[in-house]
Write a structure and sequence with these properties.
- The protein has 434 residues and is an alpha+beta fold.
- It has two domains: 232 residues, Ribonuclease H-like superfamily/Ribonuclease H (Nucleotidyltransferase, domain 5, 2-Layer Sandwich); 97 residues, Tetratricopeptide repeat domain (Serine Threonine Protein Phosphatase 5, Tetratricopeptide repeat).
- The protein is built from 17 helices and nine strands.
- The chain has a seven-stranded mixed β-sheet.
- Strand 8, helix 6 and strand 9 form a beta-alpha-beta unit.
- The longest helix is centred in the middle third of the chain and has 27 residues.
Length: 434
Amino acid sequence: MPDFGKALKQLRDRDRQPYLTGFSPVSSIPLSTQLQFLKSARPLTYVPVGSASRRETLPPGEVESTPFGSHYIVRKLYAYNYYHGRVRLSRLSIPELQKLMVLMKQRSTVTDRNRIIFLDTETTGMQGGAGICPFLVGVGHFDGDDFRMIQYFIRDFDEEPSMLYALGEFLKGFDLVVTYNGGSFDIPLLETRFTLARLDNPFQRIGHFDLLSPARRLWRNGHGSCRLVALESLLSFARGPDVPGAMIPRVYFDFLQQRPSPELAGVFTHNVYDVVSLAALSIHACDRVAAEPAAFDDPLDLYSLARIFENSPDWRRAVQLYERAIEGGLPEAFRIKALENLSVIYRRTGDPARSFQLCRQLMDSEIFSLAAFEGAAIYWERTLSNAEAALQVVERGLEKLENSPGNKRWRSLLQARWDRLQQKVIGFPSSETS
C-alpha cells in the first residue's frame, strides 16, 4: 500500500505539469484519470487484436507467427546512398569502430559490419523493473551497404513471448549490439523479459557497446546535454514533430484500450529515429577519434578528445589537442586542467624541463593547482637533486592554501610531502638552490 500511495502521488504531481500541444485531445487526459478508468467496475469491451480499428492506427507492416503466437513487425530499408543529416550510414568502418571501442576500454570485438545490431526499445514505463514491458523493439543492421530497420511490436501483452522468441532468433546472426543507455536500461530489461518468458537470453553470447559513455566523454563539456535527441544537432539532423519519450507509454495504453491513438504512428517514427541516429552518431564518434579535428573546432571538444588520448599509446595526439584547445581559448577552469594534464604528460614522457615551465605558469595562477606544486617539487628533487628547493616549493603551496579556501586533501598531501622533504634535507644537506 505505501508503494501504491507513493506512485499515486507521483502521478498526481505529474498531472499538474503542463502538457505539450499539437497532439490529439485524448493524449492530454491525465494518467490518473486513465488509471481510474482501468480500475472502474463497469465491464470493458475488448476488441480482437486483428480488428480493422486496430490495424488502421498501425503503420504498414505484417503479422509474424511463431510457436508462441504472433506479433506485428514493420520493416524499412535505407539504401546505400542514404544520409542521416550529413552522415552517410554506409560509411561505418569496422577498424574505426574498433579503435573507438579500444579507447573506451571496451573488450568486445567485431570483424564484420553485417554482424552489428543497433537496438532501442519503447516501453510501458521509464523507471525499469520487472513490471515494465517493452512493447516495441527496434533493431537496425547493415546488409552490405544498405541499412535495414525492423520493428517488433506487440498488439497486446499476450504477444510478448512471440515477439521475444522472434527477436532472440534474429539476434543469433549478430556478434555485437550497440545501444544508447542500453547498459542500464534496454539490455537489462530485455534480459529480464526473456527470463520471465522462459526463453534463452540471446545477450549472454553477444558483445555489447553502449555509446552513452563515449558520447559523454566526447561532447558533454562542449554541448551539455548528451541526450540522443540533443546530440542529433551534431549530425545536422532535425526530427521535426516528435512524440516525447515520457508520453509514449500513455499512447500505447490508449491503443490497448481502443481509444483514438493517432500518435501511435509517431511512436514508431520516434523509435526509427532513435535507432538510425544511434548508427549515425556511432559513425560521427568514430570520426572524432580517427580523423583530424576541423580547424575551428570548439576548444572544449578538443579538450575532451585530448583527455581520451592522454592515457593511450597515441599520447602525442593528446599533447597536440591540449595545445590547440588552450590556443583556441578555453574557460579558465578547463585551461588550468589542460595545463596540469600537459605537465604530467611531459614529465612522464621524458621532458621534465617543459613540464616544469608549465608548473611555474600554474603556480602563478589565482586558481590553486596541486599538480603544479607537486610537479615543481618533483622536478627540483628528482631532476636537479635539490631537496631544499623542492621543500621551498611545497612551503609556498601550503602558504597559498592558507590564503584561499583550500581542500583538506590537498593540504594533507602537501604536508606529507613537506614532512618527507624536511627529513631528507636534515639528513642529507644539499647544495644551495640554483
